[in-house]
Amino acid sequence: MIKVEHRPGSGSAPARYDLTAAEAARTREVVTQTLSHVESSEDPSLYRYAPLATRLLPERLLAFLHHFRQEEPAGACVISGWQVDDHAIGPTPDTWRTGTTRSRALADEVYLVLLSSVLGEVFAWSTVQDGHLVQDLFPVPGEEHEKSAGSSASLLDLHSEDAFSPLRCDYLGLLCLRNDTAVPTSYVPVDGLSLTPEQRTVLAEPRFVLLPDSEHLKRAAERGEQPPAPPRTALLFGDPASPYLVVDEFFIRTDPDDTQAQDALAALLRLLNDSQRDVTLAPGELLFIDNYRAVHGRKPFHASYDGRDRWLKRTSVTRDLRKSRAARTSATSRVVSTGLSW
Ligand SMILES: O=C(O)CCC(=O)C(=O)O
Ligand SMILES: [Fe+2]
Asked: Which residues does 2-oxoglutarate bind (predicted)?
């Protein structure tokens, strides 16, 4: 039996796992082996091969990730020990439409895809970065004040990823390539929020509307996709004693005359904001957020556009790809059409 290491950290900090030097070397070998099969992180063969490749990863790491998935011990975990070659990846881009050249960070993308594939299936939205399965997060000129991943000067309010859709990811993977100015990701686990029983009851009723964020809407309009009117939804669900949560501070609405729902929502948002903590990722650190058990966001920061800005790679992971089958063109497609997403 492998002993599962779970270090929950202090208070509600993410669980942590540090690859030993030997584990990091083993992981690098598996990534290098995988790279010989693929040209890009869009390559379907990467996703065919990933379930086999993951079995070759260090056992202690696999045990940790399975524990995180099965037992839900924490709202997030950080895995460190992967080395990013700062020179090899080149300058931080300022546009993600880079054409067909091989990514200079392909090894890092494959590392992210392999660890993501231990937790579930990687998928993407048609309306986010053209459906790329591994997305780039860096500040984009002109998007400074948006509420999207390319923003910088504006706060990314606390949110569940893709809160508007029941097809939202179970896990969000964020691999840091560069973060010279130590820009934090904000994070709050749902456990431990001191809501009253009355507030919990209201939040567990379908009295809230979660709207698609601006990134989805802008791209959906360009693609001629029309996201359907969002249904009313509950924000707390699952086990009432230890509920799952869906919320998006900026893109949520209630009926104007439902003051009970408004008050409960205000209390939830106040508690979330008061309990948030910073997770400042260093290059090579991989943060997995459990999108049912925690919300996240990002503090404002200054973008320099000098090739040294903060740069993360991102995946969305579902435990069940089948539930989005009606919104994908084939059983093997991993791109969910936003226009068909509920
Ligand atoms: O930039 C970050 O740290 C988080 C951004 C974010 O919310 C996301 O990628 O979903
Ligand atoms: Fe997010």
From this structure: 181, 310, 314
What's the pLDDT tens digit per position in 54-72? Answer: 999 999 999 999 999 999 9
H/E stretch holding 201? helix 197-203
Q: How far is the CA of 132 from the centre of ligand 2 (A)?
A: 16
Ligand 1, residues at Cβ distance < 6 Å: 137, 149, 156, 161, 172, 185, 296, 298, 312, 314
Residue 317 is assigned to a structural domain of this protein: yes
- The residue contributing the CA closest to ligand 1 atom 9 is 149
**Residue holding tokens 């992210």?**
112
- Ligand 2 centroid to residue 172 C-alpha, Å: 8
Say which range, 145-149, 183-187, 297-301, has the weakest mean pLDDT: 145-149
Of 96, 128, 134, 137, best ligand 1 pocket probe by most atoms within 8 Å of the beta carbon: 137
ipTM above 0.85, yes or no: yes
Identify whether 70 is part of a domain: yes
The answer to the question of residue 2 being in a domain is no
Residue 260 CA to ligand 1 centre (angstroms) = 31
Q: Number of folded domains in the chain?
A: 1
Domain with 45, as residue range(s), is: 15-191+279-340
Q: What are phi and psi of 20, to 5 degrees?
A: -70, 170
CATH number for the domain that contains residue 63 = 3.60.130.10
**How far, CA to CA in Å, does 10 sit from each of 14, 78, 183, 281, 291?**
9, 14, 21, 17, 21
Decide if 229 is inside a domain: no
If you compute the radius of gyration of the chain from its CA atoms, what whole number of angstroms results? 19
